[in-house]
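Subject: CRAL-TRIO domain-containing protein structure
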Amino acid sequence: MGSFHGILGCASLVATVVALALESQAVVALCVAASSTLAIHARSLIHLAPAKSTIAPGIVAPHREAFRRTIYMVLYLNLRALGEAGLARGRPYAVGRFLLWTQFLPRSADPNALIFVVPMFLAVTQDAVSISADLGFLLSTQLGALVLSFAFTLAFRKIISIRAAYVFAAAAVAGRFGRIFFGRMPGLALSAAIALALNLPADSAESKTAAAAAAAAAKDLPELELPPGMERWARQSVAIYGKEKAKKVCLNLHKFRTTWGWPLEISSNTTKLLEPALRSGMHWVLPGRDAKGRKVITYRPENIHKAPVPDLQLMMCYLLERETRDLQTLEAGFTIVVDLEGGAASAILCRRRKLLTIADVRRGTSMFKDSFPCRVRAIYVANLPRALLPLAGLVKSALPAKLRGRVAMSHKPPALFPALLADVPLAMLPAAMGGQDARFDWDAQVDKMLLE
């Protein structure tokens, strides 16, 4: 029975990929037939899954219930795909949507329900009523459901971690939920946050000053064997990570920047081209340092529509490059303050104007993953929607303990976020973020940058 189900799974996966590429009626019908057969057959295998497992403190995953819900999700997506392909219509189509919708009604309010059940229920409700998802979205979601089912099969056989599969599934559900209600922006924000969190470097094993680290780095340069033009990055990487990891980071940086056509070092000529991005308000570098001597950089997604996304990404790299020329900053590192106020409205605008592309997402998730030598000591996420707090907490719980201790999140604004204020006092926060620094003038700082 298991081998037959495996063959069905492979056939469904191939059929879904082909349907996603061609979107023709015949191929969609074949995809629906294969995956519906798979889903119906899977009902006889539910008892083979473990009843439940503990993912994190307070979060228990009821695997058999999730298995059942996934089956109905596949059937719902198939029915909707038939409708979008013009193969289902009228009263039977409406009745079918309603009957499948009833299978997603929440039956509890535990953390797992808030992470999975409620977002799925709201997303299916929105789509069933408004018929908002197109064929490409439905088929890509179907593909994701098949891949996740395979991942959990591997997890149940102890080939991969159940916790890793759970986190991956939670992120996928959040991305689909966000896409239906807000467009691509929530998925990008989640990917960027995870990539940045995973890139938080461990503290250096040796307690040496930045000047001593730079001196030691100079001796190691000949042994790194890097492409031309990487001298600055070699010194900076060795100072932060030591020689062994420095080469990997430098090679990743070189590959990333050459792949996307970015300069290895951002010159003053490039800076002038970035003026709209610099003045967008997406990122600020606050004057002075926080309570631990770190530079503070703000990230405000509500301004993402004010400049092209590639320019905003390049601008962030420029600001980090500029600040890490200072030895104290190189040693002390950065505090990142993410303010999500107005993020939903900006996401809707991004969706309508199609400001965000897959290439932007790929670039954003890889630009700092072992590709830029700097120390990010703390990340504070303010104005996080309450509905996303359980998912955000789950993602945080999956991080190593040292990195987990560097990330703090709150639904409150920056000026009312106690953990943030312990490092970044009100007197340092700009008035635009609820702080007391009414003299903060980012445009004046940009003027100075353009003259450098």
